[in-house]
């Protein structure tokens, strides 16, 4: 059966997925059962220098102490935390801000490439989600 981000019958545990020879890499399915959310920052990281665009640095700062990793593209970030996000949002602003916010019905590819010294914990991102979606 093909995997689906909306069909729990096609999901597996991290242990089983890591041991599988099917597919390439690992990911996480966002669902409405755990309030885990991902804030996806696109084209904000210079892969050569590691510098963040100012708009992205502000979002990472506002996220607080939470897990952040470099996205598969190498020039974006995924900020992981907890928030009640039932409707995905895509935000584009003239200053270059390129953000997507998801909490359910999405598969997010994981790289394991931690950004900076981000911890292995998930912060409450509710205030940040509210601020970004105003």
Account of the 3D structure:
The protein is 17% helix and 27% strand. The chain has helices at residues 14-19, 54-63, 126-132; strands at residues 26-30, 36-41, 68-70, 77-82, 89-92, 98-102, 106-110, 123-124. A hairpin with a 5-residue loop joins strand 5 (89-92) and strand 6 (98-102). The longest helix has 10 residues, at 54-63. It is globular and about 40 Å long.
Please state the oligomeric state of the protein chains shown: single chain
Shape: globular
Q: Mean pLDDT across all residues, rounded?
A: 92
| Structural Rg | 15 Å
Low-pLDDT stretches: none
Q: Distance between termini? A: 40 Å
Q: Total number of helical segments?
A: 3
The major pleated sheet works out as: 6 strands, mixed
User: Strand percentage, roughly?
Assistant: 25-35%
Q: State the secondary-structure class.
A: alpha+beta
Helix content bin: 10-25%
Task: Work out the number of β strands.
Answer: 8
Q: What series of H and E elements makes up the topology?
A: HEEHEEEEEEH
Topology:
Elements: H1 14-19, E1 26-30, E2 36-41, H2 54-63, E3 68-70, E4 77-82, E5 89-92, E6 98-102, E7 106-110, E8 123-124, H3 126-132
Parallel strand pairs: 4-8
Antiparallel strand pairs: 1-7, 2-4, 2-6, 3-4, 5-6
